[in-house]
Amino acid sequence: MKISDAQQVFLSRCYSQNLSxxxxxxxxxxxxxxxxxxxxxxxxEIESVxxxxxxxxxxxxxxxxxxxxxxxxTWGALKCYFRFLHLEKVIKKNIMDRVEKPRxxxxxxxxxxxxxxxxxxxxxxxxxxxxxRDRALMLLMVDSGLRLSEAISLxxxxxYWADGLVTVMGKGRKERAVPISExxxxxxxxxxxxxxxxxxxxxxxxxxxxxxxxxYVQVALRQYGKMTDITGVRISPHTLRHxxxxxxxxxxxDVFSLQSILxxxxxxxxxxxxxxxxxxxxxxxxxxxxxxxxxxxTA
Length: 299
Description:
Elements (H helix, E strand, L loop, with lengths): L2 H14 L4 H20 L10 H13 L4 H20 L26 H8 L7 H16 L3 H5 L6 E2 L4 E5 L5 E5 L2 H14 L18 H13 L10 H14 L4 H8 L5 H21 L11
Antiparallel strand pairs: 1-2, 2-3
Helix pairs in contact: 1-2, 6-8, 6-10, 10-12
C-alpha cells in the first residue's frame, strides 16, 4: 500500500472514532511530514518503512529544535499509527516495537504574578476589535485555566451569560462547564459587540472571520509579552493556565474543584500546582513573617 493511502486509512479511522478536529489535525501534520521525509529517501510503500527511518525522522525533529514534549508526542502518534496498520494487517510487523521511547524533559513552568498579569492585559489596543478580542481571550484563559485549544474553539452558544459559565470540549471529547468572572464576562461582551456577523460558531474569530489558529495566539502573546517589562517567565497560553491554577490554590481554592475546572482526569497534575503554590507561600512567609522582625533578646 502507498504511504499516502495508508495515512488516509488511518485518518478515516480517527474520524470514525469521533476524535476531535485538533487531534486529527495533529496526526495529519505529523504523518504528512513523515511522508515528506520518506519521499526524500525514495520510500513510497508503507511496507518499506523501517525503524531506522523512524529514528531518522525523530532526529530531524530534534535538529529542528522541536521540544522534547513535541518529539515525545510525535513518537506516541507514530506508535498509534503503526499499531493500527499492523492490527489491520496492512503491514506484517509493527516497526515501532523497535523504536525507543524518546526522553522527555520536564520543565517547571514559571507562572506570572498578578502584577505581571495586569501588565500583560494592558498591552492589547482596546480601541480596535483585534485588541478587544485578544484581551478577552487572555482574560478568559487566565480566569478559567482553559487550554488554548479549548479557548479558541469556544462557541458563542456555549457562553451562558446569566450563569457566568462557559462549556468547552476538553481532552477525550469530554465536555465540561467552567465558571468565569464578571470581569471576563464584560470583556467577552465588549468584544462580541464589535465581532461582527459570521457563519462561524466560535466567539473568537480571525480578521477574515474564521476560527483562530493556535499559532497566531502563541505569537501574539509573545509579542504582547515583549511590550512589558516581564522577565524570567515564558509568555504562552500554557503559562496563563498555570498562573490560574496556582493563583486559585493560593487564594484558597480546593484541589477537587480545580481538577474539575481544569479538566484533569486525575489529581496528579493538580498536586503539582499545589506544591508550586506552597513553595511560593513559603517564600512569602520568609519575607514577611513578623517573627523575623523581632529583635533578638539583649544579654
